[in-house]
Amino acid sequence: MLNGLHTELEELGMEESQDLINGMREGLTALQDDTGDEEADFDARVGELFRCAHTLKGVSRTIGLAEIEEIAGGLERFFKEVRASRSAGTLDGTLFSEEVDNMLARLDEAIRDIERNQA
Amino acid sequence: MTLEEGCILIADDSVTQREQLKLILEKAGYRISTASDGKEAIALMEQEKPILVITDILMPEVDGFGVLEYMKNHTELKHVPVIVISVVEEMDSVVRCIEKGADDYLTKPFNPTLLEARITACLEKERLHDRERVLHRNLAQSYEALRKAEEAHEALFHMIVHDLNNPLSTTLGAVQILLRDAGTGSVENKKLLEHLQNIRDSGAEMSLLIRSILDVSKLETGNMTVFLSPVDAVKLSKRLCEQFAPQAEAVSVHLSFESEEDSAMVRADEELLTRALQNLLANALRYAWEGGNVVCRVKRNGDSVILSVEDDGPGIPPEYTDRVFDKFFQDTSRGRKGRGVGLGLTFCKMAADAQGARIRVESGEGKGARFEIVVKSMDGSTISSSKPIAESSLPER
Predict the structure, then answer these.
(1) Paired strand residues for B299
(2) What distance lies between CA B178 and its chain's CA centroid?
(3) How many Cβ pairs closer than 8 A exist between chain A and B?
(4) Which of B29, B98, B116, B264 has the lowest tally of Cβ within 10 angstroms?
(5) B203 to each of B147, B189, B195, how far by Cα in Å?
(6) Cα distance between residue A21 and residue A53, in whole Å
């Protein structure tokens, strides 16, 4: 376990985590702005979001940020379900955006907490 | 910890993950190269073959499965060990990777000791595989060489038993008759002469055969020294025809010598040229029909001289003319008159090659055969200035 062993690595991980959270936020915006009903586009965008969440989960697990790991894991599962309900035709677009926004906000907060504690 | 000469390729879309692995492995003495997705990883692999690949599964552009598939479809990368990194929750993806050919997996968060142990194990396994492949290839080659040698031995054995047997039987038969007749005091001079001639001819045949075997062997291994000097092709051929005259008479074949000139100097090894011509004449006499013709000719052709022996016997079928100089070639379609002296023509070719001369055959089914040895001529002006040249006889193939 590399917890606390290499502060450099942890900092790198924090930076990457922030990048991933921003990436997801951008992805969500792009999704909301998408006017087309294209199944393929939606699937691709959610796929991207899924990968970001997955990677975030991995990074946070590597550097030992349990809270981030948990929320990221939740996002990952959520995106997976969204793909399923989209194909089933039961997706509520607005609800989806709200949920994601919430989780991203929680992630931001978690990061700020960590930074505050480290300072 | 041994320092590997090659590099370990890490493919992961997370920069933190790449860094972490890089730190652990560089500390362990490995050289590392990194890629942030499968596409980049493949590009790097094309430039330099890694000794090991550690790859994430979920990556943009080309994912872990894609990387595995690429590697397994390329011969140079097929045997490079692959370790898949993942999280515990995606075990079925890991299983899929293993099914696709990944060698091992690791879950996050890593234990550096475990990571190193797994890598060492993978590399060791690959090293053993490599050695095994090399050994197997060497074994296959040795076996093939041995098999060929065995084949050659068998052919030689067969040839010796076969071809020595006949002249030996003839000799013994003749001696038997002579002993019997001498015992009863009823030997007629004419019969005596006939039998003695048979014995001599058989002996000559056996001698020729044995010498061919020895000489082919010597020529093959480069142990025969070749002395090139000016040789009179006309005198040599004429002398040999005279030598073979009794034998020709014995089989009722008309042997003649033709030449436009009284002398034709060539650059050759006298001994080898003599023996080659002897083999050709013996061959021709063996193949000519009773009452048939064998002609030995010496003819100039540009800056070469052609020594040829032609018979009007059954000829050589077209599918065999290329192979007639091959070692141990046997044309078994000829029945009782079938080929013996399986090495005679081989010797002729090797002897020709060793002297820088050429030998060729022209023949057709039922049209007899003409064997030609083409040697470089030497005109009179160069005789005095040339000295015999001795060289090793490894023929130029």
Answers:
(1) B306
(2) 48
(3) 48
(4) B29
(5) 34, 21, 12
(6) 8
Which residues are paired to B321 by β-bridges?
none
- Is-contact B65 B42, C-beta < 8 A? no
B307 pairs with which residues across the strands? Answer: B298, B373
Question: For residue B320, how many C-alpha atoms fall within 13 Å in the half-sphere facing its CB?
Answer: 18
Q: Among A48, A55, A62, whose Cβ lies nearest the Cβ of B109?
A: A62
Residues of chain B with pLDDT under 50: 1-3, 334-341, 381-397
Residues in chain B: 397
- Mark B367-377 as b/e (b = at least 16 C-beta within 10 Å): ebbbbbbbbeb
Q: How confident is the model at residue A36 (pLDDT cuts 50, 70, 90)?
A: low
Chain B: give the shortest CA distance to residue A49, in Å.
11
Cβ-defined contact of A55 to B13 (cutoff 8 Å) = yes
Q: Structure pTM? A: 0.58
pLDDT over 90 at A98, yes or no: no
Tokens found for residue B170: 């003839």
Say if CB B201 and CB B241 are below 8 A apart. Answer: no
Cβ pair A111, A63 in contact under 8 A: no
3-state secondary structure of B81: coil
Residue appearing with tokens 């058989």: B202
d(CA A23, CA A59): 15
Alpha helices in B221-343 (DSSP H): 233-250, 270-287
Spatial separation of the C-alpha atoms in residues B53 and B64, rounded to whole Å: 11
Please tell me chain B's helix, strand, coil percentages from 3-state DSSP, rounded to the nearest 5. 50, 20, 30
Report whether B318 contacts B294 (CB < 8 A): no
- Beta bridge partner(s), residue B35: B11
Nearest C-alpha of chain A: how many angstroms from B114?
11
Contact B281, B240 (CB under 8 A): yes
